[in-house]
From TrEMBL:
Region (Disordered): 1-23
Record's comment on post-translational modification: eIF-5A seems to be the only eukaryotic protein to have a hypusine residue which is a post-translational modification of a lysine by the addition of a butylamino group.
Pfam families to which the protein is assigned, alphabetical: eIF-5a, IF5A-like_N
Domain Translation initiation factor 5A C-terminal: 85-154
Source species taxonomy: Eukaryota, Viridiplantae, Streptophyta, Embryophyta, Tracheophyta
Family as reported in the entry's similarity comment: Belongs to the eIF-5A family.
Name listed for the protein in its UniProt record: Eukaryotic translation initiation factor 5A
């Protein structure tokens, strides 16, 4: 067959893919898409007609779900695009450390201490003020492609 040597890097995970393929023509507004290696939320889709030489093309305008940057991509509608697996999980906020990390309570009773406070100023001030007032806060954490970030906040009432 071929005389090339193939080397595979093994990483310690369950083999779950960070993305899955989806035909470009089926991706809609508010869906997710990987553009330039970043997980994005689609805010605009326009499709051009089939030209003289081939495929109809989809023009995607999307916003990076972690840093808010606007990205664009043009893909033939019959080709596959990478779509990230995006999950949202709610955790109860236990503590905020001096260096900007949060301590969160998971569903099984363990703590999760590897997340930083969000960079979004309004969300950051809501979390800090609610925590200082002694409220019970639940934060929503969005995860995709190996990244996690706090993206929402719920106030479930004062601590007893």
């Amino acid at each position: 067959m071929s005389d090339e040597e193939h080397q595979f890097e093994s990483k310690a995970d369950a083999g779950a893919s960070k993305t899955y393929p989806q035909q470009a023509g089926t991706i809609r507004k508010n869906g997710h898409l990987v553009i330039k290696g970043r997980p994005c939320k689609v805010v605009e889709v326009s499709t051009s007609k089939t030209g003289k030489h081939g495929h109809a093309k989809c023009h995607f305008v999307a916003i990076d779900i972690f840093n808010g940057k606007k990205l664009e991509d043009i893909v033939p509608s019959s080709h596959n695009c990478d779509v990230p697996h995006v999950n949202r999980t709610d955790y109860q906020l236990i503590d905020i450390s001096e260096d900007g990390f949060v301590s969160l309570l998971t569903e099984n009773g363990n703590t999760k201490d590897d997340l930083r406070l969000p960079t979004d100023d309004t969300l950051l001030s809501q979390i800090k003020s609610g925590f200082e007032e002694g409220k019970d806060l639940v934060v929503s954490v969005m995860s995709a492609m190996g990244e996690e970030q706090i993206c929402g906040l719920k106030d479930i009432g004062p601590k007893n």
